[in-house]
């Protein structure tokens, strides 16, 4: 992954992060998805400084949930559900996911 980043130095970081996000989101739905590798790829995105931080965090929560790590996924969804800056759709989906996790 890092080698690929070096080859794309001419691309603005935001566009690169969006491309990585979309790639991970598509791979996440594959039956043979390697969740550990997808989580490593997400860690390569600077979530703290991304305008898409809420979407990236939501995707991380989904991957953790699919991987079976309900505790960490739940923490992410609760934080997003209480966010004052996340888009309304992310907040609503995060509330639902937090409820699903707490019920299971």
How would you describe the overall organization of this protein?
This protein has 104 residues and is an all-alpha fold. The protein has one domain (2-103): Alpha Horseshoe (Serine Threonine Protein Phosphatase 5, Tetratricopeptide repeat). It is built from 6 helices and no strands. Helix 2 (13-28) runs antiparallel to helix 3 (35-43) and helix 3 packs antiparallel against helix 4 (53-67). The longest helix is centred in the N-terminal third of the chain and has 16 residues, at 13-28. It starts with a helix and ends with a helix. Mean pLDDT is 90; it is low at 1-6.
Topology:
Layout: H1 2-7, H2 13-28, H3 35-43, H4 53-67, H5 70-81, H6 88-103
- Number-wise, the strands total 0
**Number of helices, where a helix is a run of at least 4 consecutive DSSP H or I residues:** 6
Helix content: over 70%
CATH-derived architecture: Alpha Horseshoe
The 3D shape can be described as: globular
Structural class designation = mainly alpha
Largest sheet: none
CA-based gyration radius: 14 Å
Mean pLDDT: 90
Strand content: under 5%
> What is the name of the CATH topology?
Serine Threonine Protein Phosphatase 5, Tetratricopeptide repeat
CATH class equals Mainly Alpha
Instruction: Pick out the low-confidence regions.
Output: 1-6
Order of helices and strands: HHHHHH
Number of domains: 1
In whole angstroms, the N-to-C terminal distance is 35 Å
Short summary:
The chain has 104 residues and is mainly α. It is built from six helices and no strands. The protein is globular and about 45 Å long.
